[in-house]
Each structure stands twice: as C-alpha cells, then as structure tokens.
Design goal:
This protein is α/β, with parallel strands linked by helices and 381 residues long. The chain has helices spanning 75-82, 85-90, 133-136, 177-180, 183-196, 210-221, 234-242, 256-263, 280-289, 310-315, 331-342, 360-369, and strands at residues 27-32, 41-47, 63-73, 100-108, 120-123, 126-127, 147-148, 160-164, 168-170, 202-206, 226-230, 247-249, 270-275, 290-298, 320-323, 351-356, 374-378. It has 2 domains: 9-182 and 347-378, Medium-chain alcohol dehydrogenases, catalytic domain (Quinone Oxidoreductase, Chain A, domain 1); 195-323, 3-Layer(aba) Sandwich (Rossmann fold). A hairpin with an 8-residue loop joins strand 1 (27-32) and strand 2 (41-47).
Length: 381
C-alpha cells in the first residue's frame, strides 16, 4: 500500500521552466516486481528515474522525463504479474513494469530538439541505439540490441518514466488520452493488418484477445471484404461481431466453420490469416482455412514449440508467411494516427475499464476473469 509519509510525484509543484529544471517531488509511486513470486508491489516512495548522466530525475542530453497520466495493462504485464515460466526467465526482479502510456513531458535534456516540455506524448517502447543493420535498413523494430520498456528497463507503471527523445511520439490533439495510452498494442494490430494487405480481401482472425479485437476494427477500416473471427470466449466473439466481424466461430464446436468460410469465399478459403492467439489448434486450423496462395501474418506467440505440417500448410499451399513483431518505426505510428483520426476505429468497447493506479490488483483480476479486456490505470490523481 501507499506509504502515507512519503510525498508522491502526483504532488509535484507546477512546471517552472522549459528545459528541465521543473520542481518535482523527490519520490514517486511505482509498481515493482519486487519478489520472485506472483504479484506486483506498490511503492509510494520510489526514487525518480535516473538519466544517462547518472543523476536522479535529470535527463541526459537527448532524453525526456515524462509524467505518466494513464497506463495500459498488457498481456505481457499479466505474464509478469502471474510470474509464469516466460516471465521468470526474462524479467529481472526489482524492475518497474509497464510499457503502454500517455503523459506530459516535464524535463528535457539540453540536446533535445524534437519534443518540448509540456507536450502530451506517448512512446515507442522498443529502444535501440539505431546503429545495427536492421535499424539502418528500416527495421529498427527488430534490432539486435533491442531493449523493451518495462521488460529490460524500468517502465511506465510509475509517475515518471525516462526515455530517449527518438522514442517519444507527440500525441495529436484529436486523440483522447485513453486511446493514446494504448497506442502500443493498437500499433501491433495495425502492423499485422497492414503487413498482410487486407484491402478487398477475406480475412480470418484467430484469437479475439485485446490485439485480435483491435485487428478486427483495423481490418474493417482498411477495407477487408469479409472478416471471420475464432475464439473460445463467447463474450469476445460477441464484441468482435459488434465492431466489424461478419462471422464468428467457437472452434470447440467442431471444424464446420472452415466449410462456412469456403461458402462465403470463392471456395478455397480466406485470402488472409491473421494469427493473434499463439494457440496450437488455432494456428493449425487457421492454416487449413487459408486458401492456396494466401498470406498469413503471425503475431501470436505459442507457449512452447509444437508439431506443424510445413509441407501441407505452407510449401504445397504456396502460402506467404509473415512474422510480425512490435510496430514499424515509424511507419506504423503514422498509419495508426491516421486511422484513429479518421473515426473509423471502434475502440471504446475494447477499453472496458479505467481504474485508479492503486487498484492495479483489481485490474489484473478483471483480466484473469475475462470480465475486463483492455484496462487503463489512471495516474493523474
């Protein structure tokens, strides 16, 4: 619980300068993976982030210190909270978690030219020096030196986060805070959909989780001719139908849904498979439903290796398979902003809850029960 004796960053004095000497409280609230066991721990007196110069609360020459106002809870955060095998092998104990947010810049380094104090921003959470082959050839999102916010370095489940200016994305005035706070996962959906080229194509989305549902409305906005969705949660399927899916199926009821897809396409299956679940059965049946010569974009991550008929599903089918990771920097962000501003995306029903920061446990319980889909934590108070 909150340490009532410690001043919080929420009580910081108003900003007083333009370049980084704003008066701030010496400590902040934060969610920390404090122990090697399930859960996250609330700290009310965590030290402010340290810049590259080594000084607490002071940005390095090309860094910005951002006051977080809202933060989205992600499936990755749930893995860390539940402390599954992936999290145990990947997450350092003691880290501040979280990687989706919107906030306001309160301090900048002396060399910062692209953003300014007082600006409302979010950020690309994949951080790289930008010097390796991938970064220099337009693929910084898969750079070899990639460090992820809230996974490899302290994240945004805190009153303040420090980031390089190159990772900061100014938020358009037409984008509401709760949407800006979840642009990271929305970007995953946009990257997946746009990579596959869905315009005038029939699309199968396997998995109606957060990003799968976002992919439904993105595919609809991008001009997909028909959208089919599979999932085992009836509530998610109903929501998928509401926001743009033409047909929804529970694969536990048998494989008849593949025949239904054939009946509503030229008869050889869907043009595009967007695999968002990582579930073995969904991957296999998704490829069965894909037409010969179709395109599969894979974002879902299986929990472990599994048997897959490469010859049947890909080679003899002549399928194009795309592995999708994160967001293209910065093409996906421009596409995402335009889609949001177009008014064609239906995101309000996907963001089911906004909770005070201190109620983070409730947020994870809502995710675990399935009663919550996308949940945003409010740090503004």
């Amino acid at each position: 619980m909150t340490n009532s004796n410690a001043a919080t960053a929420a009580e910081a004095e108003p900003h007083t300068t333009t370049n980084g000497s704003a008066k701030l409280a010496p400590t902040m609230r934060a969610l920390v993976k404090s122990k090697d066991q399930p859960g996250l721990w609330f700290e009310g007196d965590r030290t402010l982030p340290t810049g590259s110069t080594g000084t607490v609360g002071v940005p390095g020459p090309t860094e910005a210190l951002i006051r977080v106002t809202m933060a989205g809870v992600c499936g990755t955060d749930r893995h860390i909270y539940e402390w599954d095998q992936w999290a145990k092998g990947r997450i350092p104990v003691g880290i501040i978690t979280g990687h989706e947010f919107v906030g306001e810049i309160v301090r900048v380094g002396e060399g910062v030219t692209r953003v300014r104090v007082g600006q409302r921003v979010t950020a690309e959470g994949h951080i790289t020096a930008g010097t390796d082959f991938s970064s220099r050839t337009g693929n910084a999102h898969i750079a070899r030196d990639m460090r992820i916010l809230g996974v490899d370095r302290n994240g945004c489940f805190a009153d303040y986060v420090m980031l390089p200016q190159d990772n900061v994305w100014p938020v358009h005035e037409g984008v509401p805070d709760k949407i800006a706070a979840v642009m990271d996962p929305l970007g995953n959906a946009v990257h997946t959909v746009m990579s596959a080229g869905v315009s005038a194509q029939s699309v199968l989305i396997t998995g109606a989780g957060i990003i799968g549902l976002m992919a439904v409305t993105v595919a609809k906005a991008a001009g997909a001719s028909k959208i089919f969705v599979t999932d085992i949660d009836e509530r998610r399927l109903k929501l998928a139908k509401k926001i743009g899916a033409d047909f929804v199926f529970d694969p536990r009821e048998g494989d008849g849904w593949i025949d239904t897809i054939d009946q509503h396409t030229p008869g050889d299956g869907c043009d595009v498979l967007l695999e968002m679940s990582g579930a073995v059965n969904a991957i296999n049946t998704g490829f069965r439903a894909l037409r010969h010569g179709g395109t599969a974009a894979l974002l879902g991550i299986p929990s472990k290796p599994f048997d897959f008929d490469l010859a049947k599903h890909i080679i003899f089918k002549g399928a194009t398979v795309l592995g999708v990771n994160g967001r293209r920097m910065w093409a996906t962000w421009y596409q995402m902003e335009e889609l949001i501003l177009s008014g064609k995306l239906q995101l309000d029903d996907i963001i089911t809850h906004t909770l005070p920061f201190e109620q983070f446990d409730d947020a994870f319980k809502l995710m675990q029960s399935g009663d919550g889909i996308k949940i945003v934590l409010d740090l503004s108070k």
